[in-house]
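Q: My labmate handed me this sequence with no annotations at all. I'd like to see what the chain might look like in three dimensions before we decide whether it's worth expressing. Could you predict it?
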Amino acid sequence: MELPNVTEGGSGGDWPRPRRWYEDACGTALALEFVGERWSLLVMRELMLGPRRFGELKAELGGISANVLTQRLEGLERSGVLAKRRLPSPANVWVYELTPWGYEAEPILQAMGRWATRSPLHDPGLPLSPVSAMLSLRTMIAADRPPLAMTLGFRFPSDVFRARLDAGGLAIERGENAGADVIFATDTTTFVGLVYGKRPFEDAEADGRLVLSGDRALAKAFVDCFALPPKIGQEP
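A: Here is what I predict for the chain of 236 residues:
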């Protein structure tokens, strides 16, 4: 996608300005022009692991109307955050995907997530999308985790992912995961309970909410790499 030109003086050349504008040179104010509308950041979140169709986005963003989703997609496209393209045959469907600049926002989402989950109002028991569950891993992974290397698979009712954990971090992409060292087949709420609530695997397996395949010792070592930050006022 070719982005509009910006003049040497710093003002937008042919960049489309919205009707409302903060008229503030602060970069934070400009960021809010791009992503400050309700749902905009969550639309970006859902695209962080690859392109999605309109219906897929609506299904994962519980409560958003088709009209509002259309508005947010159009606004983010105008701002250069995402682009719309048609997949080649045989799929031949339209998808939305982040631009390279849009993908640069992941550290911003991570910082916001770490900051907000320190609030006592954060409820990890609320529903969340598969992409949100996966991105939370990249957000909450411990910097002082032991040296581990493994391949992982995650199978949720509406999406599947494969991942690689090593000293460099956790790489995640959408796709089939046969042959992984560990495969979690579960729902996102149960998965959050396993990773952040440290719920025993056996309990989730007993009530039918988890099918765990592969090396159980590696699976335990994996979930031990993650923890939510302490709540406000509860720091050690």
